[in-house]
Amino acid sequence: MNHAEDAAERAVQLTLRFGASDCDVLASSATRISSEIERGSVKQTDSVSDHGVGIRAFVNGSVGFAYCNSFQHRSVDRAAGRAVAMARAGTPDPAFKGLPSVSEPSKVSGLFDPEVAKLQPDEVVRMSMELAEVAADDKRVYSVNASVSAGQGEAFLANSNGFRGFQRMSQFGATCEAVAKSGSEMFSGYELTTSRKMERHSLDGIGLTARQYALKGLSHVTIDTGDLPVVIDPLALGFILATAIGRGADAEAVQRNRSFLAGRMGRKIGVDTLTIRDDPTLKWCTGSYSFDGEGVPARRKVIIDAGKLRSYLYDSYTAAKDSVMSTGNSLRGHALWTYRQPPTISSSNLVIRQGDCAPDEMISETKNGIYLRTTFDYPNLATGEFSGLMMESYRIEKGELGPSIRQATMGIDIVDLLSRIDLIGRDARYAWGVMAPPVRISRARIGGTD
Amino acid sequence: MEDLSEFAIDRARHMGAEYADLRMEMATGTTITVMDGRTKNMISPEESGCGIRVFRKGAWGFSVTNALTKTALRSAVDSAVRMAKVAERKVKVLFSIGEQKPVRKVESYPCKEPPGEVRADEKLSFALSLDDSMKSHDPRITSTNVRYDDFEGQRVIANSFGSCVVTHEVWTFASCVAWAKSQGVVQQGHDSLGAVSGFELARQASSQGLGDRAASQAVRLLASSPAPAGTFTCVLDNRMTGLLAHEAMGHACEADLVLAGSSVLEGRQGELVADESISLYDDPTVKGSFGYFSYDWEGVKARKHTLIDHGVLKEFMHNLESGSRMGIASNGAARAETYSDRPVVRMSNTYIGGGDRRKDELIGDLKNGLLIMGGQYGYVEPAKGQFMFKCDEAYEIRRGEIGKRYRDVSLSGLILDVLKNVVAVGDDVVLGDAGLCGKADQSARTTDGGPHICVSGIVVGGLA
User: Residue B412 is nearest to which of A125, A262, A409, comparing CB atoms?
Assistant: First the structure.
């Protein structure tokens, strides 16, 4: 028995002995090395390791959670005592029907890449430098900031029903920001990747994309207020849908009437060609796992099927309330699990079914519109309305991608957005926990400056 | 912890660090989440650890350990030195860290009722009373959420210049969200309050009114329509002025972004970047505020920063590195969320100074525009020169009169233009919107504020 397993077993026994009716314990550890480039020069190399135990105790349905960042018995014992004391202090909850019973974790490949685990700091530094050099390869590029990180983690989960599960996970990530200047004009291009697999070959592409967008954005226009078609890049679509669907379909938000998706089960909320599923079994994706944060086996589920809402995302508590099975969406962090927080409902990897439209075709088919590459806004989940800055967007005129647009916004109801999709791309990419193709929507309200 | 700090810093120097510093912490806290009158989670964290940073020839190595023992610290120091040596081999920009006068200080943040001495059930009673105040506010309130957080920690900051600052940090935070439903429409309202203080925050009159304010906003918004899209002259309330100050200018004034070539304000010190009626400050020394600190996370004494003085860009916020590279002393703006994060340049309490116009004059003078109220969140890309900030609600202004109510909406502007477009500045400065600011995967407790101001050329991301 290793330290994590020993700490988890001890915590389960003690938490029950202290008076909890049910409990689960995550003992996890993670290490990460990273290299950061600032203005083309190595700025920092980090080596961070962390381990600890998170204990969730139930007393009359009330939840207490405590953690300590140690596997030592004294710390674990204290945390078990605090978890039970907190549960006792809380209010009873008759809706709690117990933790999941023992199930065999799903067989999911691509959770751990030994190549990531083997990476040494000097290699990570070298990769970040190479990435930055690609991005800087134009005299108009004024500054390049980049990072490469490699992490690995182990998670041992135990609960009072006898579930015991272990999974090893890895994460490889890179980001690049290229800043271009020409006269008084300045613009930045950004690109990133995240995977459980080491993707050295993708680094050149990240530097190249960041550079290309930085240069492309130097020429810019403003735009009139009006209604226009918008081609939404997977980067922007992923960011919007991670919240709109990932959090909007959270059964807790639905049951409490806090989500715009409440009361819409079985109803049409998108075009017939739209299918969105949640899939924790996707190989190498950072949201994948073999069992969720409560020990429920990972499984695929369709959230939106041919435009109709088919499922919400459940943990064991919300599933019991609706008399359904947990969908296995109780999560303890994303790529590398953490003992520091109790499990919460979340999407794992959202997958938007690809279409058949080539990227160039999507733009050439758009006579007068907008290409939205990035936004960091999210919808109001109560109303389902999205109002956000198009942080990086480009004009499409006569079927060609034109200059960047400064200071323009997009406003649209999310159900309208999903219902106005008229083209779906065939090339999907993974970002923000979403595997998304580009899509075109026939019309959104654009706020402009003219 | 001081002895262990001294041991670690000595070892780092012995191993070849040109400069080394560390942040060592032992911390506890409480988080209570109440949903619809019942506890969802009662959380009790406890952790300790140390983050060690080693500098050599223009590059940093950083390492973290959870264990506060000599063995663990020795290993962490050795790892940080190894990381610095790896980085050093590829460094293109050489610089050194300017010598600082050593600071030795033991301090405690102001606190009357240490959270650790208050029973969990008393904290829960406070959270439940907020929940009840929302529920009982109006029968249309359908769901409620209360979150209460407190934090107490002992932190040692030590460096190879001989500084050792020991801080007993404490803060408390509470937030309420209410959902209201009527005729199939669901709306939400929220409010929050935070301070560097103990549990006495819960006894303040403003805390007791937190639930009412969230609930009344949710109910108010039931009778609202989507905002129009386009460019408008806007009167911003105190919270939105604060969010504008933070997003539009605050981040672009962080010297680490300037050094990274990622701020459009690089090279503009001494230039007019705002209307002459605008002065912008960042002041961590405001006692009781959520952004308060007296020494920064590199052990440098905190002070008020005048970022813009009557329209002129005066200074950036610095840490030891940015100050050293720009040939000045750090002005105490380095912050790290926990021991396991490296310090980066951060804001604290950011606000625009007051003018001489009354709020009702700003509204009365506006022929056609919007009154924008309550801040949700914002973000900026200083290299693109664009920012956005999202309000809770908006109102039409026509011929100086407040009219139709609109829902939450995003607003956007350009860093180099927005403060030049200020039409008038109110005299009612309020520093009060406590929140968490994100940067470099870290959160920092901050407060924003200012007076009502009137700004032209704001792009509104409406749906209508």
Answer: A409
Q: Kindly state the average pLDDT of the residues B134-155.
A: 97
CA distance B97 to B103: 16
Spell out which residues of chain A touch residue B410, defining contact as CB-CB under 8 Å: 377, 387-389, 409, 411
How far apart are the CA of B448 and the nearest CA of chain A, in angstroms? Answer: 20
From B58, B266, B253, B327, select the one nearest A142 (Cα to Cα): B266
Residue A1 has what pLDDT?
A: 63
CA–CA–CA angle B439, B444, B446 (5° rounding): 115
In this complex, which of A145, A413, A449 lies closest to B260 when CB atoms are compared? Answer: A145
Instruction: Enter the ipTM.
Output: 0.93
User: Residue A143: which of A185, A182, A180 has the closest Cα?
Assistant: A180
Chain B CA closest to residue A69: B47
Which residue is associated with the tokens 């954005």?
A217
The helix/strand/coil state of A73 is helix
| Interval B70-113: pLDDT, tens | 999 999 999 999 999 988 888 888 899 999 999 999 999 999 99
pTM, two decimal places: 0.94
Q: Which residues of B fall within a CB distance of 8 Å from A149?
A: none
Q: Do A45 and B142 touch (CB under 8 A)?
A: no
**Per DSSP, which regions of B57-140 are E strands?**
59-65, 104-108
Per-residue pLDDT tens digits for A311-339 = 999 999 999 999 999 999 999 998 999 99
Instruction: Please state, in angstroms and rounded to a whole number, the distance separating the CA atoms of residues B276 and A382.
Output: 41
Q: Please tell me which of the candidates B42, B67, B461 has its beta carbon nearest to residue A388.
A: B461
pLDDT range class, residue A283, cuts 50, 70, 90: very high
pLDDT tier for residue A64 given thresholds of 50, 70 and 90: very high
Nearest Cα residue in chain A from B266: A186
CB distance A50–B66 less than 8 Å?
yes
